[in-house]
From TrEMBL:
Residue stretches making up the USP domain: 742-1263
CDD domains membership: Peptidase_C19J
InterPro entries membership: Papain-like_cys_pep_sf, Peptidase_C19_UCH, UBP14-like, UCH_repeat_domain, USP, USP_CS
Species annotation: Maudiozyma saulgeensis
Highest classification ranks of the organism: Eukaryota, Fungi, Dikarya, Ascomycota, Saccharomycotina
GO molecular function: cysteine-type deubiquitinase activity; proteasome binding
Protein name, UniProt field: Ubiquitin carboxyl-terminal hydrolase 2
Length: 1285
């Protein structure tokens, strides 16, 4: 006999000595006795125990000369036995068997008539009832020292090879509601015994791959019967049993379920408090001893009886001393009826007379159980004792749980004794004893799926983790054993195929070519079609498809599985390629599944998706449909034209079912809802609106829109539409200039200035203000004379020179914006004066002169060596674009000739326009800037941080603006403040004096977030900026510093700090860690609030983040590598390899306890793996909770509309900006100097690791103000000569 589990031996020692102080140790001439049992036995047997005598008589007399070589299959034809079940099915049968018997009043029984359970019946008979059955908990002893409940024996007939493992457990309904200890004895407890015989020789040579099939057998082979001597089908306590044998190695699993060991009314009554008290009083009267006032509870009785029955079990051999119980033992007489030891429990009452005193002592002697290996009758009795101990232990622990406080305090000894018994409720031991380690691995690593108790899964005896091959093998085995129910098994297989979404199973089902009437009728009912009133043969496939789409859209995920299964059946019956294709290639309901299929991250670009698809198809051609579904899902999720094009190329079926030829020209117009006279730009605009903004209720909606647009493009022979269909973006070269934003030429290190100017241009209120700017320095001085000495911007006064410079800068910006609106060119060039004034710090004085040569003219003079005309800083360059008057000689020569009268009329009209324009205020001053100054400024721009340039630009715009009002500190309030500035509140709260709160208010232009802490997303980064801090201040002592937002701007700017200084290398470096963000930002959690729920959420989040930080630090510590580049785990593994090698022996070095060291290292590795796995799971759970912590707080909503990008390193690189058109087509455009192109959202939201093109400035607009974002503003006037024509 060998123990399978051990635990601290002290538990057993402590419990055995519990009653030593109350017992007298006696000696017998014939036997050796030691100690007090509170576990004694007697010679009288209970009626139940004596019932087996005749049954077991002669078991030892069987011919034990029978021999089994252990190498032959004793059940060669077991695979033809029915039912067949897997270990998972058997385990589930075990935990549901009692519920099936008691709750469903079953009448099923075998010929013997003592089994009404489900262990030996086909799953078809109970699969539909499974969801209504209670799953009983399986209780086990983990501690095999306190009570051994797991045994291993050598086979009697083949001790060399075969072995038997035995497991004892408890079955109890976990849905208990107890209020008092008196109720514990009324709880039904059942006993489980599993005996498994394995044949290792066959296991190593004939074990089949995959899930093992077990087949029911009625009787054991004659070579196996001696190994199960205590098994008796007629055992009076046996409720249900079954014998299963595996078809490959003939592994035997014998399952027995017994009723409670304490069922009689007198047993039940003896544990009630009322009877315990009577017994207590009787003991006091009989023994004549004043007993203590300690309250005796049912838990005390359970504990005492547990020790009584455990005593004989602890004897290992007959030579060990026998521990008896004094007949007058107080605990014995108060906790149980001592006479039962003889009448019920096989104890013997011995009497001894002391020769010296003549006193007679009486002691209860327990039965001899240590000879159970040789005597089957003893083994039967030992089984009974084990079951009694287990039941008493679990009842005792249950009593402790429901005991009142005073009952627990009255006898802590009992409570400690019972709680020290290491028990557990788990089905893992059932897998362990059966040797099914593979199933146990899945049991421990995966959560249970609700589908596991679906009747289809039960009918095929499978679970969700089974491979496609195992499912098919189960199906084929069952239809061969139970052919008359092949339709049921086929329905189950089809359902499982759809539930798992595995194409291999779907393909296998398709080859079966079976559609039963029941399946067909069920499919029609799922489609809400009455099969009795409808002829399915007359129904059109398109009608069925429309019904499927409608039901899919309105149903839930669980019903979708049934719907999909029904659609496959109908497609098969109708032989509909369309319906079959739609169901086969229907996108995944969860986008993550698509990315997992292609083994890529959600943040990758379209080209990476295509590459991953191609690799996956090459590596696993059998997964082509799964990969196509994944690609289709991602394409729809991203609304990516390029991915849909790629899908059509890779899977011609999509071209077949969504061909533009299926539409007429009018059908295509109707689908897109455009007029037949609409031009290409209008058609594309409508298409983009529907493509980007329309909710996708049907997965193929985008494919149908694409097919309709393709049809229109073919009919109209449109290059614009053709280019869009190929790339998913609009080619600006195919559009008139007025339909596309204007680019800006780079005049030297001005790429980020260009980005900034495009950004400001897209903000309509700011742009309109600048376009309408008419102030001169004289107007400003006369209008603001009262305020000019008081007003402050950014906390400082504004000098006259700064005002003049700012006015000139605003004129330059006004001229540029006009050029961007009215120019016919696709790009315009900012003036060098504008660049200089933007880059040069605002406090740098700039001289202006009335008549001079502009910097641009100086550059042209320098480059061309000729004189140029001096232009003022007002509207001169853009005046050409606005009026459309100036034409090149070539253009004029191509115009139609006109007469002198017409020409004079045109000149008069032009003069009127010029006069109108002259009404707009302008400056006749230009900046007095040398070429060298400009070069220095441009170099300064290259080195400048973008926020410095933003500060310069906005400061000058404010300086050139008249204040709307001044605050108490004379800070100017104007349009710039209204658009871009918010206000924060910083509070210093002393910990010990909550009344002394100091508050400080500050304006902010942008919120700064750091990537140095590796934030998971933009919220995580912002949280760090607004998290509470605990500081120590000289004035207040320990304080808490809080920061919140009291006023939010219309335009919220978030700067991502990426440049840091490397103190070791003495140089700056750029962090390219991705910071995830979406097109929405909710600021509720950062705004000052007295909402208790929100405040509590913030506190919870802080605690979770601290927990998360600790977990990540521990994870980092475990994964840290040493000087040799090895992690801790790798170092342990290398050490084990080194110890296993003979390197040390060759050097004459002897390592003591080498094997023990290897075992310890392996244990360390296992523990480390378990800890890392646990940490990983905890991190995932915490991060998910944090992500959704504020989902209920989404009132303060911002929408992303601009993303500044820097590609390169800290000291060099290139800038561009993405700007969204939120009110028109919803498209994103990339403004890269003179080039403006449309881009996909995936390019904007690209969070790929290692990408040096990183966002460094994010701009959001309040949701209610997003109409003020207007990136496209073009007005091109037709020249007057062309109008006349």
């Amino acid at each position: 006999m060998e123990q399978t589990d051990t635990i601290n031996e002290n538990n057993a020692t402590e419990n055995d000595n519990t009653y030593n102080s109350n017992a007298t140790m006696k000696a017998s001439p014939s036997k050796e006795y030691s100690g007090s049992l509170i576990e004694d036995t007697s010679g009288t047997k209970s009626q139940k125990d004596t019932t087996y005598d005749s049954t077991m008589k002669g078991v030892n007399e069987k011919d034990h000369d029978l021999s089994d070589d252990g190498k032959s299959l004793l059940y060669a034809h077991a695979s033809s036995n029915f039912p067949m079940k897997t270990i998972d099915r058997l385990v589930d049968d075990i935990i549901c068997d009692i519920s099936y018997i008691t709750d469903f009043n079953t009448t099923n029984s075998d010929p013997i008539g003592n089994s009404r359970g489900l262990l030996r019946i086909s799953p078809l008979l109970y699969s539909h009832k499974r969801q209504n059955m209670d799953s009983y908990a399986v209780g086990s002893f983990v501690d095999q020292i306190s009570l051994q409940t797991k045994y291993e024996f050598k086979s009697v007939t083949c001790p060399e090879y075969n072995k038997i493992n035995v497991y004892y457990g408890i079955l109890v309904n976990p849905n208990l509601s107890l209020k008092d200890q008196d109720q514990v004895i009324d709880v039904p407890f059942y006993h489980l015994k599993i005996s498994v015989k394995t044949r290792p020789y066959l296991e190593t040579r004939m074990k089949q791959v995959g899930v093992t099939h077990y087949h029911l057998i009625d009787n054991l082979h004659e070579f196996d019967e001696p190994d199960f001597p205590e098994f008796d089908k007629k055992h009076p306590a046996l409720i249900d049993h079954a014998i299963y044998v595996s078809n490959d190695t003939n592994r035997i699993i014998l399952i027995e379920i017994f009723e409670s060991e304490f069922l009689s009314p007198e047993d039940t009554a003896s544990f009630k408090k009322e009877n315990i008290m009577l017994r207590y009083q009787e003991a006091q009267n009989r023994l004549g001893t004043l007993l203590s006032d300690t309250i005796v509870s049912p838990a005390d009785c359970f504990n005492t009886m547990f020790k009584i029955f455990r005593g004989p079990l602890n004897r290992r051999n007959p030579e060990d001393p026998i521990r008896t119980i004094d007949r007058d033992n107080i605990s014995l007489n108060t906790h149980i009826n001592p006479e039962w030891l003889v009448s019920k429990y096989n104890f013997v009452l011995n009497e001894q007379k002391d020769e010296n005193t003549g006193e007679i002592s009486r002691e209860y002697e327990p039965p001899e159980l240590s000879t159970y290996m040789d005597d089957p009758k003893v083994r039967l009795l030992r089984d009974t004792y084990i079951r009694r101990c287990m039941e008493l232990a679990f009842r005792g622990q249950l009593a402790i749980k429901v005991a009142r406080k005073d009952e627990l305090e009255a006898n802590t000894k009992t409570r400690n004794a019972l709680n020290s018994l290491h028990t557990q409720f788990s089905i893992s031991p059932l897998y362990q004893v059966s040797g099914e380690s593979n199933s146990l691995r899945f049991l421990n690593s995966e959560s249970h799926s609700p589908l596991d108790i679906n009747f289809h899964f039960i009918n095929l005896s499978i679970k969700g983790y089974y491979s496609d091959r195992d499912i098919i093998r189960n199906y084929e085995t069952l239809i061969s054993l139970d052919h008359e129910n092949i339709g049921i098994y086929y329905d189950a297989l089809a359902y499982i195929s759809n539930a798992k979404g595995a194409y291999q199973l779907v393909a296998y089902c398709g080859k079966q070519n079976i559609v039963g009437k029941e399946a067909l009728d069920t499919a029609l009912r799922i489609f809400k079609i009455d099969p009795t009133e409808t002829n399915i043969a007359d129904m059109d496939e398109k009608l069925l498809l429309s019904i499927y789409k409608h039901e899919t859209h309105n149903g839930d995920v669980s019903s979708h599985i049934d719907l999909k299964n029904a659609a496959r059946i109908l497609a098969k019956y109708k032989q509909s390629d369309l319906l079959k294709f739609y169901v086969d290639y229907e996108p995944y309901t969860v986008i993550e599944q698509a990315y997992r299929t292609l083994e890529i991250d959600e943040s990758v670009d379209d080209d990476i998706v295509q590459t991953a698809y191609s690799i996956k198809i090459n590596d696993a051609p059998g997964l082509m449909i799964d990969c196509n579904r994944a690609l289709y899902t991602i394409a729809i999720h991203k609304r990516s034209m390029s991915l849909l094009n790629f899908l059509v190329c890779q899977c011609p079926l999509f071209e077949e079912f969504y061909s533009p030829e299926k539409y007429s020209y009018q059908d295509a117009l109707n689908l897109l809802q455009v007029n037949e006279n609409a031009n290409d730009e209008v058609i594309l605009n409508v298409f983009q609106q529907r493509w980007n903004n329309e909710s996708i209720t049907e997965p193929d909606r985008l494919l149908n829109l694409k097919a309709a647009l393709t049809k229109l493009g073919i009919e109209k022979r449109s290059k614009l539409i053709d280019h869009f269909l190929k790339t998913g973006t609009i080619d600006p070269n195919c559009l008139p200039p007025e339909n596309w934003p204007t680019g800006l030429n780079n005049i030297g290190n001005t790429c980020y200035l260009n980005s900034l100017l495009q950004y400001y241009f897209s903000i309509a209120p700011l742009r309109e203000y600048i376009l309408g700017y008419q102030n001169t320095i004289q107007d400003f001085e006369s209008n603001t004379n009262i305020l000019k000495k008081k007003r402050r911007i950014g906390g400082r006064e504004v000098s006259d020179n700064e005002v003049e410079r700012s006015i000139q800068f605003t004129y330059q910006l006004r001229d540029l914006f006009r050029s961007m609106i009215y120019s016919k060119s696709r790009c315009v060039t900012p003036t060098h004066e504008l660049a200089y004034l933007a880059f040069a710090p605002s406090n740098v004085e700039v001289e202006f002169e009335i008549t001079s040569t502009s910097v641009d003219d100086q550059i042209r003079n320098k480059d061309e060596g000729c004189d140029t005309k001096v232009f003022s800083n007002s509207i001169s360059p853009s005046e050409e674009d606005v009026s459309g008057i100036v034409q090149s000689n070539d253009e004029l020569s191509n115009l139609i000739e006109i007469n002198d009268t017409d020409y004079d009329m045109l000149q008069e009209e032009k003069q009127k326009k010029i006069e109108i324009k002259s009404d707009i205020a302008s400056s006749n001053k230009v900046a007095k800037i040398s070429f060298d100054q400009l070069e220095n400024a441009l170099e300064m721009g290259r080195q400048q941080d973008v926020t410095e340039c933003i500060g310069n630009v906005l400061y000058q715009l404010e300086s050139a603006s008249e204040p709307i009002s001044l605050d108490d500190e004379f800070e100017q309030y104007d349009l710039i403040k209204n658009l871009f500035y918010g206000k924060t509140k910083q509070e210093i709260k002393p910990i010990n004096d909550s009344m002394r709160i100091r508050a400080k208010y500050e304006r902010f232009l942008s919120l700064l977030v750091n990537v140095s802490d590796h934030p998971r997303d933009i919220y995580d980064a912002l949280d760090s900026s607004f998290q509470d801090e605990f500081l120590n201040m000289d004035e207040y002592g320990d304080v808490k510093r809080t920061v919140s937002i009291t006023s939010l701007p219309t335009i919220l700017q978030v700067q991502i700090q990426r440049v840091y200084y490397d103190r070791e290398r003495f140089m700056p470096f750029k962090s390219i860690d991705p910071v995830r963000f979406t097109d929405k930002l909710f600021m509720d959690r950062y705004v000052e609030s007295d909402n208790e729920e929100l405040l509590n959420k913030k506190i919870e989040t802080t605690k979770m983040k601290e927990q998360l930080r600790s977990l990540k630090e521990r994870q980092k510590e475990l994964l840290k590598r040493n000087e040799s580049g090895l992690s801790r785990k790798e170092a342990f593994m290398e050490t084990i390899k080194f110890l296993k090698s003979d390197s040390l022996e060759q050097q004459g070095i002897e390592v003591k306890e080498k094997e023990e060291l290897e075992v310890n290292l392996n244990n360390l590795i296992v523990n480390m793996n378990n800890e890392l796995s646990s940490i990983y799971n905890e991190i995932n759970i915490l991060e998910n909770k944090i992500t959704h912590q504020f989902d209920a707080f989404q009132d303060v909503e911002y929408t992303l509309f601009a993303v500044f990008i820097h590609r390169g390193e800290a000291s060099y690189g290139h800038y561009w900006i993405y700007i969204k058109d939120p009110n028109d087509t919803g498209i994103w455009r990339k403004y890269n100097d003179e080039t403006v192109t449309e881009v996909s959202e995936s390019e904007v939201f690209n969070f790929t690791e290692g990408n040096t093109a990183t966002p460094y400035f994010l701009v959001f607009v309040k949701e209610e103000d997003k109409k003020g974002i207007e990136p496209l503003k073009r007005i091109l006037e037709v020249p007057e000569i062309e109008k006349l024509d």
